[in-house]
Design brief:
Length: about 300
């Protein structure tokens, strides 16, 4: 039984944002390949777009690892919750400056430009990933715009990658759409990576991938349970993790050998308001089955 085995010591769906816990299916591999192309082609800007809960922050953490593996000096800065004037100092703190360079009595922007110049002279790309661009203060938006648009040679090996929230239909939220600068970023981006909700196949692949990583040798989710979980979570990765985590706890408490669809649905009904649950159930009963995640074209064929 689930609770009587050593396998229950760790829940495989703990919601970690560590790069090593990022699920890489075919769509995720294509998205990362697009960022690799940006570095290889010395492009300046890439945007990662997606609605809330679709894994933009987790993708950003994985991008640091992937681009660092290509030899780039890759750093990540979340713009959420920063005050006016904070972003540049925090970015410099994340760069691996030697003690002498860090202690130089220079303005922060000069320190950043000096580091970019050093990397350019060493033919080493610099990749700066900004998470939650839609949450940026006006001075951060202006500064990032300067990084993206500057034509000086010191910026020649710089790549800026920014994550930006969209609504479920792909449109920008009202506060982001009202910013002329954010719209300008969208026009300047060499690549737009769109993270969309997962299909039932992707959800099943994630569930199968996560279990062995937590030391579990047995399959806990059958096809019906995985399909129910994907449907109730609307394919949103954050909600899939949350439902899967609680479903495993519930199955453990009830001494079930496998998570069944009824357990998934019961956990879901405890999480969402009754009105939301009824509306979702009605949509499921009346809408045609449609693919949740339309496929993007394979980038390795497009861009080598």
């Amino acid at each position: 039984m689930v609770r009587d085995t050593p396998e229950t010591l760790r829940n495989p769906f703990d919601g970690s944002l560590a790069a090593g816990d990022f699920f890489i299916g075919p769509a995720q591999e294509e998205a990362l390949a697009r960022l690799e192309w940006l570095v290889a082609e010395q492009q300046r800007l890439g945007l990662v777009l997606g609605p809330s809960g679709c894994g933009k922050s987790h993708f950003a953490a994985m991008a640091v690892r992937r681009l660092g593996g290509m030899g780039a000096e890759a750093v990540l800065l979340s713009l959420r919750g920063l005050r006016e004037g904070d972003w540049l100092d925090l970015l410099i703190d994340r760069l691996p400056l030697d003690p002498l360079s860090a202690a130089e009595p220079l303005r922060p922007w000069q320190k950043l430009e000096n580091r970019l110049r050093e990397n350019t002279l060493m033919e080493r790309p610099t990749a700066v990933i900004f998470d939650d661009l839609h949450e940026a203060t006006p001075d951060a938006v202006a500064g990032i715009g300067r990084l993206v648009s500057a034509a000086e040679p010191r910026f020649g090996r710089l790549l800026v990658v920014a994550t930006l929230a969209t609504e479920r239909d792909g449109a920008m939220p009202a506060q982001a759409a009202s910013s002329h600068r954010l719209g300008h970023f969208s026009e300047q981006a060499a690549v737009r990576v769109e993270l969309t909700p997962w299909s039932e196949e992707e959800t099943a692949g994630f569930l199968a991938w996560a279990l062995p990583r937590a030391g579990r040798s047995r399959k806990l989710f059958g096809e019906a349970a995985a399909a129910t979980l994907a449907r109730l979570a609307a394919g949103v990765p954050r909600q899939i993790c949350q439902l899967a985590r609680l479903a495993v706890v519930a199955a453990d408490a009830e001494r079930l050998m496998e998570v069944d669809p009824l357990t998934v649905e019961r956990v879901w009904r405890e999480l969402v308001p009754a009105s939301t649950a009824r509306a979702a159930a009605h949509r499921t009963a009346t809408e045609d089955d449609a693919p949740v995640n339309p496929r993007v074209r394979p980038v390795r064929r497009l861009w080598g």
